Amino acid sequence: MRGIMISVGAPLIAEFHMVLYLFGFFLIWTGVQMWRQHGQESTSFSDSFAVRLVKKFLRVSPDYHGNKLFTRDAIGILARPMLVVVMVIAMTDVMFALDSIPAIFAVTQEPYLVLAANVFALLGLRSLYFVLGGMLTKFAYLHHTLAFMLCFIGIKMLLIDTPFAIATSVSLGVILTSLAIGIGASIWKQRQLEKVAS
Asked: Domain range holding 29?
C-alpha cells in the first residue's frame, strides 16, 4: 500500500509541483488536529471509523470464533470481531502512511529513498509503537512536540520554492532541538509532580 502511494506520489510531484503544497497543508492540518486533540477523551474502539464501516456493510457477531474472519448462520454470512481488528490495523497503517510519506517527500523526491525509508521504518514499527506507547505516559509534552514537528515539516514544504526555503540541515536541527526541549520539559514536569506527591 505504501509502495503504491509512493509510486503514484513521486510522478505526481514531478509533473505537478502543486502536489507538494497539498502535502504541506495536509501535514499542517494533521499537526493542528493532533495538538487540539491532546488531553481530550479518546474515542472508544467501537465508535472508530473502521468499526462503523464494517458494521455498515456487514453483520458483525459479538463473539470471536477462533481466528475466523467470517462464519455462516441461518441468515447468511456473519463477520467476526477478528475482521474488525484486521480492518482497524489496515486503516491505522493507511493513516500512518498519509502522514509519513508526505513528510519524507519534504526531504527528498527520490522514490527509491522514500521507499527505503518506509521499509526501514516498518521494520521497527512494532517495537517503536510500544516504546512510544510507554513514553507518552511518561513524557507529557511529547504529543505537542510531534504536532509541532508535523506543522514545521508542512511549512517547510510550502516554502520549498521560495526565497525562504528551509535547508535540510536547518530542519534537522529544528527537529532535534524540539525533541530535546519536549523531552526535557516532560522530565522536568514529571519531577515537579513527584515532588508535589511526596
From this structure: 2-197
